[in-house]
Structures are given as C-alpha cells and as structure tokens.
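Trying the structure run again after the queue cleared.
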Amino acid sequence: MNEQKLASLVNEMTLDEKIAQLTQLATPFFKGASDGGQITGPMAEMGISDETIGNAGSVLGASGAKEVKNIQRKHLEDNRLGIPLLVMSDIVHGYKTIFPVPLAIGCSWDLELAEKSAEIAAREASASGVHVTFAPMVDLVRDPRWGRVMESTGEDPYLNSEFARAFVRGFQGDDLTNETNRVAACVKHFAAYGAAEGGRDYNTVDMSERELRESYLPAYKAALDEGCEMVMTAFNTVFGIPATGNKKLMRSILREEMGFDGVLISDWGAVKEMIPHGVAEDEKEAALKALTAGVDIEMMTAAYVRYLKVLVEESQVDEALIDEAVLRILTLKEKLGLFENPYRGADEELEKEVVMSSAHREAARELAGKSAVLLKNEGVLPLRKEQNIALIGPFADSGDILGPWSWLGSKEDAVTVKEGFLQKIDGAKLTVSGGSDIETISEEQIQEALESARDADIIVLALGEDSEMSGEAGCRADIRLPEAQLELIQRMKQLGKPIVSVLFNGRPLDLHGVWDETDAVLEAWYPGTEGGAAITDLLYGDVNPSGRLAMSFPYSAGQIPVYYNHYNTGRPKGAPDAQERYVSQYLDIPNSPLFPFGYGLSYTEFTYSGMKLSSEKMTCDQPLNLTLTVTNSGTVAGEEVVQLYVRDVSGEVVRPLKELKAFEKICLEPGESKEVGFTLIEEQLRYHHSDLSFRSDRGTFIAYIGGNSRDVMEASFKLEK
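Done. Tokens:
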C-alpha cells in the first residue's frame, strides 16, 4: 500500500475511527486475549467503549503467537476498514532469554554483542507476535539513586550513542518490511529523563538548553540516525514543560531539527499526568497540548478519546493534525507489512524452536561474562578447582538475577550461582547457605552460615539488591547494601578466610563495608538467564574479566552526581588526597569516585607505552593520528578496552576535563604487544557554544589514552583553522 493509498484510507475514516487509532490500550481490553474482558480498577475507570476498542490502533503487552493471532483476528472482524493492530511490548534486554541489564551491557563495551542481544530478543519477540519494543532506553545517567539507571548504558554521551545505534540495528535489521524476525524499536525517554532531581523517578528535570544538547540529546539522535521507528516521551519536564506537552521539544527539536517523521508515543498515562504537573486544568486541555506537541499515540489514558472530537468541533484543533498522526501510525503498520500479513512473524512452531533456544542461552552467557566488572582482587581470584567453597548469601541459590525489566523472564529458568558452581566443582566440596535475607538477618542464619564455611578454603558471598529495589520506581537514597548483608560480611570475617563478594544490583552502589572488608569484589549486575554459569566462568578463570564501568561508583552518596566528564572550577582541588581549604572539595570525603568510569580489573596486566601523535597540530582538513603500544605483561590471555579521551583546554564556555572520543577492545596473549591507533578529526572537537551553535575552537587540546578515565597517558596538540 503506497502513501497515496494510505492517505485515501485516512480520508475514509470517521473522526471517531481516527481518534481511536491514536489510542493504545492494554491487552485485557481486547477480545481474544486470555484475560480479555477482565477490566477492573483504573482500566475500568477509563470508560473505554467497545467501539473505541474495535478501532484502537495498538495493543500494549500482548505476547505469545497464539494469543496475538487471536487478538488480531477478533480485532479485524470488528474493524470496519480492516486496519490491523500494532502489538507493542517492553522487550528491554531480552524477551524470554534474558540478557544482562543494559547498564551491564554498557560495561561490556562490546557493540557487536549488544547488537546480537537485541537481534535475539527481536527473533524471540517477533515469533511470539510482537511488532514494536519499547527499547532502547538511551537516557544519560549520573545519579545512581535513580532506579532506572539499570536501563541505560551509562554516563557518557558517546558510549551511549554507540550502544543506541547497536541496539536499533539489532532490533530492526536492514529491512524491517521483509525481515519478519525483527521488530521496530522505540527510543526512550525523550528527553533527559535520566536527570531527574534527587534521583527520584518522575521528578523535575531543569537544565540549560546548552547542557541538554551537549550531553543528553546525542544518544537519541544516534538512535534516530540509525533509523529508529518510534520515540517515547519522558515523564519529566524540559524547559519547565512536561515533555508530553512540550511543543518546542517535540515539534521543533525532535521533528524539525532531528528530522524524525516516525511515530511519537506517550509513556504510560503521561498525557493525563499533565494535570498534576500543573500545566493542564483537565483532560481536555491535556489532550490539546499533547496533540499540538505532536504526540501520535496516547498510552493508557483516555484524554484523546474523550476530548479530541470536541476540540475539533470547537475549532481548537485542526483535524489535519489528527490526520497526520494517523498517517504516521498507518505508515508504520505498512512498513511492518501488517496490511498484507496482520499476523506478521507470529508462529507457534517457530516460537517453540527459537524462544530460549540453546544458542540464545549461550549468547546470554557470553554477554553476561563480558558485562561483569572485577573491582578488586587481592590475589584470591581466579579460584582453583581443588578449593573447598562456601557459597553464602541471599543470592547463593536465587533466580532473582534477571532484573526488574525482564518482563517474561522466568526466575525458574535462571541458572543460579549454586547451579553454576555445581557445573564446575570436580571433587572439591561446596557448601551453600543463605546467611541472611536481603534486608533481614537472624542469629540462626548466621550460625548456619558459619557452620557451612568452617571447613571451606574460601568464602564466596552472593550479595545485592532484590530486583524490586531498582528499576522504575526503585529509587533509593541510601545506596549501600542493606545492613543485614553488611553484618553478614562482618560475621564471616571472624573465620579469617579469604572472602570473595559477588554483587547483584541494578545501580552503582556505595560499597563501603564490602570492598574494604572482602578480598575480591565482582560486580555481576543482574546478569540474566545464564547468570550463574557466567559468574562461575569468571570466578574460575575460564573467562577472564573484561568488563569496564560505564558509570562511576561513588565513594559516598554525598558526592552524587559524580561522573568523570565534569567541569573544572575556578578553585579546583589539587592532589586527590590533599586537604586544603578554599578549594572545591569536601572536608570529609574525596572528590573522586571510588571506581571511575572505564575502570575494571583483569586476571592479567596491561602496560601502555610509546604514545605518539602524528603532528603537534591538526586542522579541519588534516586529521590527527594517535598511536601507542599495549602489552599483555601478565600470564594469561585477556581483553583490554583502550580508551581515548580529549580535553579542550580553553573554550568559549567551560569544557569537561575529559571526554571519551573513541575506544577499541583488543585481545592479547601473554607477552603479546599491539599497536593501537586512533584518528581524531576536527568534527570530534566541536561542542555547543553559548549561542547553541555547534563548532570547534582553535587552541590547545590534550589527548589521553588509557585503560580507564583516570589512569592515562597524555599528549597535547593544537587545532588550527
């Protein structure tokens, strides 16, 4: 169906049918769903008529090939013009085969595996009838108190942009129309949701437009440049106006400047939430502001259904605005081939074959192994097969390692740490004890744990946050481990045995009481379905840790926000450990994070040497080549992430002390050396000036290369124009 035919279809539709196309309803509203007709509570209060349901444009949360086909079949029977439903769901980091949470994937610095994880998620989801996933989330994050940092890939605009591109490629492929094993991606949350004040979900965001453009918009733009089909609005304010009703943000920046002509959808209930925000007196005004701002689909509130027709009749809304929104939705349906095949991809037999296949689980295991970050190791790792192990802690035998946005993931399908150890133990003794619950501990639990560990050579503590302690609405002011688990560590130390801590969590934590009290710390995040197997691969050295932090770990919550690419001040602190008055510092804690962006240990050592620049000058037409040699100076093969940072020493506005510009992941055998090279071009030195123009300045720059944002070699050069 070409554009002309789609336009003709819009002309055939009544105003009520058009408005229904702009309405997204959850699965229980639809005939054919297993829970169809069970409308209670807030859903019942929406007052959605059967006519609206029969003409609705999309369904939220449906899955399973059989159910989706039933819903679509019943819908087409009732729809006068035979317009199929779009099926949308939250496939954030896996459909049924769950990969590590996105923050963990960011720590892999592995774009190919990230793309593969999205491709596998799309393959499983599409066979189960899903057309659109609400991913990737590319919000830049600097406050680990915010629960949704686990959905992001971290604190750096460049790294986030690269992962945004990778996820979109994985979900959508090269030909969304003909590749029915792919799904349309929806980048979220536009814009700056990750900057919520106080790290509190749904809270106010207030920043300059220059900062918005400099740090927060690049990753969204990268996803759109990769062809992302949809955008979701954020819950927060931008420029003092909720994003869902923000005409400047959506019409001027998103559509005109960024060139986005796809479908814009509100987040759940965000249209109606303009009322408590205080920018709409009632649902009628909320509907007017959302449509005027360019929101095509209202998710799970009924302001459009109730008031758009009235607004048209009162000449407050031009029906042409509704037509353009409907046309964008129909165009996406056409691109997905739904008019020709409304059951696109849904296949019960294929679903059985691909969902949770052994190949998919193996890929999840590989990515989990590359996403974990070794933060400390005082010579106790890797473990030896002959060592007797005491595995203790609330995550020792828990399937709650998938993360809060795993949706269809099953804890029962997850490989626990205990099961991972049982795959490795060969003749040695493994004892397992809970030691404590997530937030409570009893003397009985402690005594059981002490008994389990008495004859062990080494204690492995499996600690962390319950999955409900992070994710949406999972914000925490105190980001230490719960006191019960810190007490467990202290009681285990009484035995005088080496202790390894393995952490399961969705955010960087304040690790006091963990890193300083145990001999090794492995940050496993929520590693997904194959988590336990991947963790024991790492603990025994079958896989050498290669994860590097995509988000800084604070020394204390009192530092937040703490991030590597911060600005200097007029009174900068001198030496990191120096205490001097009248400079920008704390009197009681360091300024620096406990573990910086890009940090991570290995079972081998990497030595950097011989950094060279092709010239001391670069111009718009003459790039700068940077090289250095990286040597594996240890005894085992390992992967290193070589990171290039740049500082603009003097700008028209203040510039970050370091900015990531490129990275390369290399694998070296023991004793092997490799020359690593980067090319810098003038475009990479551009930034947003005070007038919002995007350009570079002549002057001095410093290039830094190293294994993290702190430990680097450096050399200076000049940009001439």
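The longest strand covers residues 638-648. Worth checking whether this holds up in the mutant runs.
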